[in-house]
UniProtKB/TrEMBL annotation:
Record Gene3D superfamilies: 2.30.30.140, 2.40.50.90
UniProt cross-references to InterPro entries, sorted A to Z: SNase_OB-fold_sf, Tudor, Tudor_domain_containing
Protein name: Uncharacterized protein
SUPFAM superfamilies for the chain: Tudor/PWWP/MBT (SSF63748)
A Pfam family reported for this protein in Swiss-Prot or TrEMBL: TUDOR
GO CC term (a single one): cytoplasm
Amino acid sequence: TLTLPQISEDLTSKFDNTLPTPYDLQWTPGDICAAQYFIDKRWYRGLVKKVLNDDQVLVQFVDYGNVDPCAAGTLRKKPSMTSIPMQATCFKLHTIAPIHADGKWKREDLDNIHSFVSTKNCRVELEVIADSSSYGVKRLIMATGKDAVAVWVENRWARYANEPLVQYLQRLDAKERAEVENEDGSMEDEEVIFCKIKLVRVLRNSYFYSYGIIILFHSCDESDTNIFCWQLRMARIT
């Protein structure tokens, strides 16, 4: 069985540095093709989804699942290995939903979700989606043993779909307020308990004073002391 890199290697060696024929510039939805991916410039098996205009065609890379626009000149009509089944299978991530108030996905979140699992070995646990005959991803277990879906939610790239959006936003807002209050409280404690500030004024000349600020910061167990010094020069007021 050919691996994904081997399939790409075969197509790249066949079509790299070739020019399209007039036949290669005529496409209709449903056509199979070999397409050059715009990022790595390698060739992959594809399926034409839509003709966007005379210069661009929307292609699904059937061994990976992604759908991207491709320049018409980077498609070829005679792909190799058409007898090999498509290597990508589409499953719905039905347990997650967008976190934003408009209910729409942001590109940054989708990029984070994609990069977290892309090209990594995972164990996929599937389940039948309620009121549907299709399958969805229940859990996506990484090599580290972590559930990728849980990590996405923890990093606030997504939320669990079974929690209403309004409830999620209210809970998130309350959590963020609590975090801010905790940060403010800990900062106040450090300033009052663990910091000692000494201001020293030294006359440099008849026009300027130099102020040396020495902060003695003690760690919580007071076992270490760090000294930070700054020199501030201020104009003398007469």
